[in-house]
Amino acid sequence: xxxxxxxxxxxxxxxxxxxxEQFLSGTxxxxxxxxxxxxxxxYYLRSGRTKDCTKxxxxxxxxxxxxxxxxxxxxxxxxxxxxxxxxxxxxxxxAESTDYEVLLLKIEVLLKLGRQGEAKLLxxxxxxxxxxxxxxxxxxxxxxxxxxxxxxxxxxxxxxxxKFNNKNSELLYELAFCYEQIDNFEQAVSINLQxxxxxxxxxxxxxxxxxxxxxxxxxxKALEAYEYAMAIDExxxxxxxxxxxxxxxxxxxxxxxxTYQEYKKLTTYGYWQxxxxxxxxxxxxxxxxxxxxxxxxxxxxxxxxYDALTGIAICLLEQEKFxxxxxxxxxxxxxxxxxxxAWVYMAESNIGMEDVDNxxxxxxxxxxxxxxxxxxLMAIANICMEKAEFELAIKYYLAAKEQDKFxxxxxxxxxxxxxxxxxxxxSISYLKIAIKADKDAxxxxxxxxxxAENLNLLK
Length: 459
Known about the structure:
Blueprint: H1 11-25, H2 34-46, H3 50-63, H4 68-80, H5 84-93, H6 100-112, H7 116-128, H8 134-147, H9 151-164, H10 169-181, H11 185-198, H12 203-215, H13 219-232, H14 237-249, H15 253-266, H16 271-284, H17 288-301, H18 306-318, H19 322-335, H20 340-352, H21 356-369, H22 374-386, H23 390-403, H24 410-420, H25 424-437, H26 441-448
Helix pairs in contact: 1-2, 2-3, 2-4, 3-4, 4-5, 4-6, 5-6, 6-7, 6-8, 8-9, 9-10, 10-11, 11-12, 12-13, 13-14, 14-15, 15-16, 16-17, 16-18, 17-18, 18-19, 18-20, 19-20, 20-21, 21-22, 22-23, 23-24, 24-25, 24-26
């Protein structure tokens, strides 16, 4: 079976294109055979120049009327431009309906037209008729199905091709991709390792392996895979930034910073985002001044930068510079008023400035946006308890406990609130639960409720 799917520009092809364009401009004369015209059309197809493709085909069919190869190219153009019905009519009219490229195009057109049953029958026949090159035939058809998001049959074809020849690297890449799509990362890892066994210098396989280990949260193995990929291609910027991310996940912040700096040398854009990553590393190292420096660099390059604004605010909050943090939080909320975390930072800034009422309003705004925040619910409850609004405090403490039953001190604080409400029975009940989790709960309870010391509550 003839396979005419590959195309590459060599010196001869370049000469053909040049001669054809000179012919169109009227500066040259000559004759073009079918093969030359196919090369011209394919060149324009690869360049996305569909109008030039159409013009070349029209010209070619004037020279070679009813040529099936050129008509096949016309069907391909119809496919690219979304005119699937016209593509099918052209393909259906071809006398050479057993041509491999025609059959593949027919399968693709049938899928686009929603005629999956006919497409599968044609695909099955194509596979059944092949004996010498089955892995590549399966791969070619699988490409079509995967491109149309028909993963099940595409996956089936790849597995069939794999059984025929498990050394076909192109097929292995697609098979690994399919395993990744169904979240079978372990099998995807295994397939990428097979590719590496075939070609230890397969940069793409090492990178994919790193990505898979990253998804599996096996960061040590991910780092090793990225390092191999970088050793093969030291200018691979995508691998470089992924390697930096892994260092970050491994709490290797100095190494992460160094690798992010290497990444900046490999790229000519997106510095503001990389500066965010570097700032986050310094923040984790509690080097807040350095962190703020990079956040501000990022902000200068990209003023509408929510992450930089909140990053600066967090660093200032950590340094207890509450008033200084407030303008950055306010700017962040202008950019994204529905950011629950920014409202929490606003509340923390207000707490630091002893503006409890506004802090409470900010916390409540945050949970109205994102109710699933046990720590924020605890913060609201603590404010309510300090304001002697004990019933309201209990409501928020129990809401926090419902979201996280292991949250620290929640049972103790509920016990305190019930004691303040003179509901001694419920107070004792929650205090017993608190003591099971922490023997020091009694001491803390008595610090908050010294009047309970002489009551012998736990007898």
